[in-house]
Amino acid sequence: MVVVEASSPAAVRDAAEDAVRNGSSVVALAGGDGTIRDAAGILAGTGITVGIVPCGTGNLYASSVGLSRDIHEALATLATGSPRAFDVGEVRLGPWPAAVDAAPPAPMPFIVACGTGLDARLIAATSYDMKRRYGVAAYFLAATRLLEHLRAQPTVLTIDDVRTELESVVVLVANCGEAIPGGLLPRRRIDPAMGCSTSSSCRGAVSSTASVARSS
């Protein structure tokens, strides 16, 4: 067994790439949603079994796949659990509309959700120190400072070649919305075939005038 301490997203990705090169059969990730996201983009589709020990602030992904937030119970699951397949989404960030001869931007993975507008600004406004001090409450504290600045932005959604123009304060593509506080679920059932998988990107494209985006 090899234990790697990774203190940054780049270090997490490097460790995941080492695991692939070394032919590892199992990788256990001890961290939160960000750690899992950073490793998932590398490990998805490799055949490596990924275990999760939730040690982050929200641990939304761990909850969505049925893992206990208790570290001891999570460790027991690593020893006795059976692997299951889960989706990993991809988002590409770039200017819109894209130039005809421009190379497509590199994909960024997400496991919980990716969003623009309020969602992105909320994540950006919640510092690491705030999360360490207040836990999940740090997001609500940040939200109280942002709400008065909410402004709807012109937004274009293109899903399966169907274009919709609207104004929005947030656009959120959720991979496991049932784990997001408040129980985010679509108003209309989404065809699972439209979702993101470990081997392909979402078929829908999202563009907005909002200049900030995040993935987690």
Low-confidence regions: 186-216
Tally of strands:
10
Provide the helix percentage. Answer: 25-40%
Q: Distance N terminus to C terminus?
A: 28 Å
Tally of alpha and pi helices: 7
Strand order of the largest sheet: 8-5-10
Give the strand content.
Answer: 15-25%
Task: Give the topology string: H per helix, E per strand.
Answer: HEHEHHEEEHHHEEEEE
By helix and strand content, what is the structural category?
alpha+beta
Q: Main beta sheet: strand number and arrangement?
A: 3 strands, antiparallel
Mean of residue pLDDT values:
76
Radius of gyration: 18 Å
Number of domains: 2
Shape: globular
What labels would you give this structure?
disordered C terminus; 3-stranded antiparallel beta sheet; alpha+beta; 23% strand; 216 residues; 7 helices; Rossmann fold; 2 domains; 30% helix
Please characterize this protein's 3D structure.
The chain is of the alpha+beta class. The chain folds into 2 domains: 72 residues, 3-Layer(aba) Sandwich (Rossmann fold); 127 residues, no CATH class. The protein has 7 helices and 10 strands. The chain has a 3-stranded antiparallel beta sheet. A hairpin with a 2-residue loop joins strand 6 and strand 7. Helix 1 packs parallel to helix 2 and helix 5 packs across helix 7. The C terminus is likely disordered.
